[in-house]
Amino acid sequence: MKSRRNILIGALLIAILLMVVGYSAFATQLNINGTAEITGKWDVKITNIETQEKSEGCDDGDPQFTNTTATFNAKLKKPGDVITYVITVQNAGTIDATLNNVTFTPDEENGSPAIIYTTTNPSGTLLAGDETTFTVTAKYDEKATEVPEINTKQIVGTVEYVQK
User: Fold this and answer.
1) What global pTM score does this model have?
2) Which residues touch 164 (CB under 8 Å, ≥6 apart)?
3) Of 65, 81, 126, 129, which has the fewest Cβ atoms less than 10 A away?
4) Which stretches within 2-144 are classed as H helix?
5) 77 three-class SS
6) Which CATH architecture has domain 44-163?
């Protein structure tokens, strides 16, 4: 009985050894290595502001710009005077941009009612390498019959582009 048991144990050990050798013969380890790189460039910016229209005798205030701001200081003299600024926005990056939000808010509460601002919107889609323009116009209300007590009015604008 003991010898049968020893033979059976020996046979099981040999079977296990053959299974281990068989598994290792048919097992392969695969190694995978990879790298991801972002090559896109986001670069939507203001590239110019210039005076398009200016009534005679008015001062356009030497408009200035940076990549993210455009500033002007219009000086209007009489009713009907107008100054229009053209602001250029360029997509100098490699990622297309979509216009997400545009707000132009004149300070109606603290500003002169005799100054009227009008604006246009830039293009809704700005493909990589393209540019668009929009305008901001300041006008001395032609219906004004006297110089108002408050003689200034600010406008604050935001033009927001996002990835397409």
Assistant:
1) 0.80
2) 95, 96, 97, 98, 125
3) 129
4) 2-26
5) coil
6) Sandwich (2.60)
